[in-house]
Amino acid sequence: MIAMRRWSVRHARGLETVYRVLERVFVALDPLWRRLGYQRIEAPVALLERVVKGFLFDCQMCGQCALSATGMSCSMNCPKNLRNGPCGGVRADGHCEVRPEMKCVWTEAVAGSARIPGGMDALRQVQVAVDQRLQGRSSWLRVVRQRVGEI
Predict the structure, then answer these.
(1) Residues 68-81 pLDDT 10s
(2) How far is Cα 112 from Cα 90, in angstroms, rounded to an integer?
(3) Residue 74 near residue 35, CB atoms below 8 Å
(4) What is the per-residue pLDDT across 111-132, written as a single tens digit (0 to 9) for each?
(5) Separation between Cα atoms, residue 71 and residue 40, nearest integer Å
(6) Which helix H or strand E contains 90, and what residues bound it?
(7) Please, are residues 76 and 58 in contact by the beta-carbon 8 Å criterion?
(8) Sign of torsion, CA 112 114 118 119?
(9) Maximum CA pair distance of the chain?
(10) What angle do CA 94, 102, 9 make, to 5 degrees?
(11) Cα–Cα distance, 35 to 48 (Å, whole number)
(12) Which residues of 51-71 are buried (b: 16+ CB within 10 A; e: fewer)?
């Protein structure tokens, strides 16, 4: 899984482009989502999201995805769940102090953000604390609802 995470960071620019296209498609489908009912489609969309993002990013399904702001490195993979940058224990070789076999997700985030236009600016934006009530829910549908002004 770690190898796939690193691949995703190396290909952050392409994955960001794919995500932006899919986001537009999902937003354009808002009338369909409304007709079907967001509550009804939550489970199947969350399952699809878990499979896709789980494979590519080892997604933890926090429900508040920040991959675009972290260079396609899921910050929730940090053993300390740090959402706004590395702890003081990042080793000199860029590896995690808690899991020495793993590169720090924030070292990866900086590398991935450098590959995305505007990524370094996005990386500097403070992420709000994780709302545990959204755990396991679809962040894709949440983004659609935010874009159309529903939440």
Answers:
(1) 999 999 999 999 99
(2) 17
(3) no
(4) 999 999 999 999 999 999 999 9
(5) 32
(6) none
(7) no
(8) positive
(9) 53
(10) 75
(11) 20
(12) eebeebbbbbbbbbbbbbbbb
